[in-house]
Amino acid sequence: MMPNEHDTKNNLFGILKYWAAFSVFMLHYGGFWRTYRGFCPPVEWHYEKVTFFPPVIIFLAISGYLIAGSLDRSSSVREFFSKRIKRIYIPLWISTIVYLVMYLIVAHDRMDGSIVLWLLTSLVGIAYTPSCLADFVTGSANGVLWTITVLIELYVLSGLLWKYIKKISARMWFIILPLLALANVGSELLDQRGGVAAKLLERTFIPFAVFFFLGMAAYLYRRELGNGLHLAGLAACIFLLIYHKLGLPDYGYYTGIVRGVLTSLAAVGIGSWSPEKIGDQGMAGMFGLFSRFDFTYEVFLYQWAVFTVLIDYGLYQTREWYEIYRISEFAIFGTALVMYLLTRVLMKKIGSRRE
Prior knowledge:
Blueprint: H1 13-37, H2 41-50, H3 55-73, H4 77-106, H5 114-124, H6 145-165, H7 170-193, H8 196-201, H9 209-220, H10 222-225, H11 227-245, H12 257-271, H13 281-292, H14 296-312, H15 315-318, H16 321-354
């Protein structure tokens, strides 16, 4: 497929992904501050403002849109999976080694056989905390890996069913998406009951499918929607702000279903807009840099390691909120950038050897 105004990297998706990565950082920064230091008005203010649009939902919706594009452009499903494996698993394997080394240093006296199972599950992208780390610092070996687990499931499902998904009519999407929204609400009801089913939900795509497939549907009908998609994204932002201001009820798994759906629509509607639509090629090229130089995945992978070290060495418990904010932000994004560059170099060397 030839690129056109509907298929371009010179859009706002790159910027939104960096914003979502920063928001996830703020989500955990604020959460850990509450745990170790209690209530702090400046932290709460920043936390609430930055995470108003749930960042994980932004990633899911954008991923649905972009994965549909990747499948659409791939010559075969095999080619699609080959690209996804390289992008997802090589950085994941490298980060797993980094985490293993870190825990061998900071928690060497806790290590036992359960770390082997953690290593194996991490290498395939399954979130799991070994018993030896269950009560260490954060209580989780890598608290963000569950999002990777969910995305991998959605990628596999999309790839296997793509020949059917791409043929779904607009009318059918208006049936499927509400059903998936009901699955999200039902997941919350099930989660409140607890038990094995609730634990399994934490590692499945079911509660999050509506946000991902809303993005996929937006891609499939982007031409028919045209500028209406961008206007819908803007309207979703305004509607959510009004809905929140009025204090209206919301209910759902992970986040309220109203907030989740409107955030998803805002992400794909605004994110898919490009300055190319108004003939501004210079601005479009600048926006495209964020998509072409994207280390947001590495921000996800390494932030838990940084927070673990900061807490274990007592910095979270002794420094002021703004000091911890600056230190953790610099350490997380700096580490992510370095590991992103190292991973790219490694992948290029592997590719050149095969040739």
